[in-house]
Amino acid sequence: MSTRTDQSLRTRWLAVIVLSAAQVMIILDQNIVNVALPAIREDLAFSQANLVWTVNAYVIPFGGLLLLAGRLGDLIGRKQVFLAGLALFIAASAAAALADTQELLLAARFVQGIGGAVTAAGLLGMIVTIFPEPEHQAKAIGVYGFASAGGGAAGSVIGGVLTDALGWEAVFYVNVPIGLAVAALAWRLLPADRGVGLRAGADVIGAALVTSGLMLAVYTLVETERYGWGSPRTLGLGALAAVLVAGFFWRQSKAAAPLIPLRILRSRNVAGANLAQALMVGAAFGFMYFTVLYLQQVLGFTPLAAGLAFLPAPIVIAVVSMAVAPRLLARFGARPLVLTGLPLMVVGFVLFAQMRADGSYAADVLPGMLTAPLGFGLTMPALMSLGMSDSRPEDAGVTSGLFNTAQQVGGAVGLAVLSTAVAARTDGLLEQGRSTAEALTGGYRTGYTIAAVFVVVGLVVAATMLKTRKAEAVEAEVERVA
């Protein structure tokens, strides 16, 4: 009996590792391309304005389809949906690497985004289903949390190494062998599951509203840097996206088989964790984006050197999220970790906001590079635990998709706001006669300052909305008695 139990536990842990590897690959692909953009621009003759679509063509379908993909996993079966998304992602990665025109590359990136969304949407839901036991679940979420955070931070490192050594095509080719290995292991290790059936929640109208609304919202956000926040185009598309999303929630309140049961959003922990995460991730996207630019454009680092300069971030996140956070989560609960980690992130961004045009890596980058990831590594596993805390087994996929959607929309909103502020500050300093290095540095300092404000707002949300472990126990007892 003990041997069987040990084998079952080992198999479940291997399954979590495989799912986390898939998450690393998906998240990595969002950032690994950034370092390769100059090489892609030169090889495929992109204009500077069109180059950004190498990133946006992936982000828009990815952010728009996560919610629908998560629900499809609940209805059809999470393992089947995961493997289908992974196959699409692998094929699109190979197509992107082989692309010899702008159009082919952008089309491949769009399909990559679809495959990435279908693959990633239900991952967290599968993990909490594999490990329902609180102790094991905390550790599993810690591993997955590192995959999410560490994959993003490692993207710049790996992108720099691959681009310098093998060319920009390698940042897409690398997904093929990794994806095939993940698919083969997932086929063997993931437990077979049957969804509740399409009749239990095939809300076609709701699916059309939420997917079109989210994709239009992400598209509008990523285009604000080009058109501005106050332009008629931005305001019009933003209003239309809001109407579509509002229509979706109205539809969910009336549908006999809603795509998302609204009781999920009535949970203070789920709503608070998603909102706090969106603010935190919006700040973190700015950290990764502006730090790479500061290293290359101000300090003169090569792409490879800039990538290697990011190594402390994934190392800190790995140690904290996998070794430290699970123990603290099991002992103290999620809320104290969030209220500890977010202030550490604020300190990290404040340190970055002191950077100088004539600065150095050791003095201007490394202190923040150690502090902000420390806070992120503590906070993300705790928010994941809270974000999934009130979900039922039949809703785990859509709750997971909701958490991932908040992450992507938060990142898109954050980066759009921060990029606009940085560009405005940089242009203003250039008009005052400052040098390019001084103007760029001044812009980045503004971006880090606003990122710190984002996290402070997230801290307020967490302090006011997230429940303590005692409050959760009281509510559970009331429900039991009722």
Quick rundown:
The chain is mostly helical. Helix content is 84%, strand content 0%. It has helices at 2-44, 48-51, 53-76, 78-98, 102-120, 123-130, 134-166, 170-173, 175-189, 204-222, 224-227, 232-254, 263-266, 268-298, 303-309, 312-332, 334-352, 361-364, 366-387, 396-431, 436-465, 469-481.
Give an overview of the whole structure:
The chain has helices at about 1-45, 50, 55-75, 80-100, 100-120, 125-130, 135-165, 170-175, 175-190, 205-220, 225, 230-255, 265, 270-300, 305-310, 310-330, 335-350, 360-365, 365-385, 395-430, 435-465, 470-480. It is globular. The chain folds into two domains: about 1-200 and about 255-480, Growth Hormone, Chain: A (Up-down Bundle); about 205-255, no CATH class. Helix 3 runs antiparallel to helix 4 and helix 20 runs antiparallel to helix 21 (about 435-465). The protein has about 475 residues and is mainly alpha-helical. It contains 22 helices and no strands. The chain is about 85% helix and about 0% strand.
Could you outline the blueprint of secondary structure elements for this entry?
Layout: H1 2-44, H2 48-51, H3 53-76, H4 78-98, H5 102-120, H6 123-130, H7 134-166, H8 170-173, H9 175-189, H10 204-222, H11 224-227, H12 232-254, H13 263-266, H14 268-298, H15 303-309, H16 312-332, H17 334-352, H18 361-364, H19 366-387, H20 396-431, H21 436-465, H22 469-481
Helix pairs in contact: 1-3, 1-5, 1-6, 1-7, 1-9, 3-4, 3-5, 3-10, 3-20, 4-5, 4-9, 6-7, 6-20, 7-15, 7-16, 7-19, 10-12, 10-20, 14-19, 14-20, 14-21, 16-17, 16-19, 17-19, 17-21, 20-21
